[in-house]
Amino acid sequence: MLNFTDVTEFILLGLTSHREWQILFFIVFLVVYIITLVGNIGLIMLIKVSPQLNSPMYFFLSHLSFVDVCFSSNVTPKMLENLLSETKTISYNGCLVQCFFFIALVHVELFILAVMAFDRYMAIGKPLLYGSRMSRVVCVRLISFPYIYGFLTSLAATLWTYGLYFCGKIEINHFYCADPPLIKMACAGTFVKEFTMIILGGINGTYSLTVVVTSYLFILISILRMHSAEGRRKAFSTCGSHLTAVIIFYGTLIFMYLRRPTEESVEQGKMVAVFYTTVIPMLNPMIYSLRNKDVKEAVNKVMNRKCVTN
């Protein structure tokens, strides 16, 4: 007979138990979080106020930035609090809420990246039809799917997390409530949760990645058919930022979730999780802005308007 525990809270073991490292991590992740907020919110506002950024690509990019802000804010504040706290606890309900938003936002970002790949195909492969095919109504419908599907998928996945049973041990070997360490810690109800986590992750990851790969195959064919070297260069430049974001995001998620939870995989996953919960949301505005001529011009125009006003 298993002695099930009525869990009211969990202890998050975090990244390290050494106090000096905790203080250093707090400073580093606080700076990263501030840069993430400033970068993504700044990019959203820039897209909103700049007429030259009034295109489907930047409409989708503003939603990607919004999701990155939510994604980072779901994890980082609690991690920062626990780095300075002696107790390092999270309530059972708080853990479920964190799980729900984490899974939802991961799926939303997966499919936004897929939608952005399709948008790039339409812009490069069918430029004459781009304006009519990618109208505002179509863009709203395309961006609605990731949110609706992501949150419905997360609701089901979180209910399976709720079905886990614990037998005394309430220490989560992580800095947030993640599925792999919860499954490793649970003593019953793990089969369904583990099975659905791998199946859902595999199906959704494969489906969204298929859209990305197929879109880029057609983009490559379209680029090879171009006669202008300048056109090819511009097309590659436009796609480079998105491809970089896709490779980083998909790579870290595959490493984290498409494996059975073991002590070793949970420990490795904790290091990878630092990257995709804090670093990727910070990098995305830089990836899409530093090499983007339109964004640079928009920033210069906004700065010039500010100077003239002052």
Automatic annotation (TrEMBL):
Protein topology in the membrane: Multi-pass membrane protein
Membrane-crossing segments per the record: 23-46, 95-118, 138-160, 198-223, 235-258, 270-290
GO cellular component: plasma membrane
Signal sequence, renumbered to the chain: none
SUPFAM superfamilies: Family A G protein-coupled receptor-like
Molecular functions per Gene Ontology: G protein-coupled receptor activity; olfactory receptor activity
Domain G-protein coupled receptors family 1 profile span(s) in chain numbering: 39-288
Keywords on record: Cell membrane, G-protein coupled receptor, Membrane, Olfaction, Receptor, Sensory transduction, Transducer, Transmembrane, Transmembrane helix
Localization of this protein: Cell membrane; Membrane
Record's keyword annotation contains Transmembrane helix: yes
PANTHER family: OLFACTORY RECEPTOR
Annotated family: Belongs to the G-protein coupled receptor 1 family.
Stated role: Putative odorant or sperm cell receptor.
Name under which the protein is recorded: Olfactory receptor
Organism for this UniProt entry: Phyllostomus discolor (pale spear-nosed bat)
